[in-house]
Amino acid sequence: MCYYCSHYKKINLLHTILIKFRNIITKTENHLGYLNLNRQNENNALDIKTSEEIYEGLKELEQDQSVRVILIYGNQKFFSPGADIKELSQLNSDSAKSKGLFSFFDRIKEIKIPIIAVVEGYALGGGIELALMCDLIIASKEAKFSQPEVNLGLMPGMGGTQRLKYFLGKHNANYLCLSGEMISANRAYELGLVSILLEKNNFFEESKKVAKKIAEKPKSSLIEIKKLISKNEFIEKGLKTERESFYNLLDHENAKIGIDAFLKKTKADWKD
Predict the structure, then answer these.
(1) Could you tell me the end-to-end alpha-carbon distance of the chain, in angstroms, rounded to an integer?
(2) Which of 105, 131, 204, 254 could potentially form a cystine with 153 if both were Cys, beta carbons 3.0 to 4.6 Å apart?
């Protein structure tokens, strides 16, 4: 069940503000901002509401002048399984465009300070793509990764085809997107998808140590380094084409077959 939870975030020693979110929790501590994906009954699936809250939460954390690094994380079972398939089943190309499906994720690039994806459990589809939008990916050795959209008669729509090609190379990106195969954290690390691989025990505390080490550096330097490393005009062009292709596939009969089979837990019978 989705519900609003209220929590306080310290802006400095003198001020606190009240923030209300439904599917995320934010807090700050010692130059670090924390954004916890908390749509528990849906395993942190990324519906439009959650994507909006992620962007708004990141902006709120960035506005705290004490914060130099943000960590985004889920729970031990799921970082995120990706897009909310129930929501997708109700959309076509036109409605997806009008509702701004995935559009809030496009705005994550506005965040100037480093963002670290801290991945335990499953990061699937949009879950991987959300992690790829971050500046580092720290993963537990128990984590699993996949781009399974092809199994739904769809394709990555939040940057997977473009960022995986950039980070992993054409052939590795092709294999992950075309096969929908699940890979281990070790394999993701070998491919260069994961920046740092940590043991399951004390995983989050060890991840915080990495973030704290970065947060010790001057904020001005962190911002400029991130800006220059992140700059890629070719990816930006490709992202627009990818999004259009994803929207178009929503109207294809195979997408309806694949999504329906997923929701009913049956095997898809493709039309081509």
Answers:
(1) 38
(2) 254
For the question of residue 211 being annotated catalytic, the response is no
* DSSP helix/strand/coil, 256: helix
CA distance 143 to 118: 10
pTM of structure: 0.90
Distance CA 124, CA 230 (A): 23
Q: Which tops the pLDDT comparison, 233 or 140? A: 140
| Catalytic residue flag (residue 83) | yes
In CATH, 5-200+218-264 is 3.50.50.60: no
Decide: 117 and 135 in contact? Cβ < 8 Å.
Answer: no
Tokens standing for 81? 């399984």
179 residue type, one letter: S
Q: What is the pLDDT of residues 142-182, one digit of tens each?
A: 999 999 999 999 999 999 999 999 999 999 999 999 999 99
- The active-site residue, picked from 83, 96, 131, 173, is 83
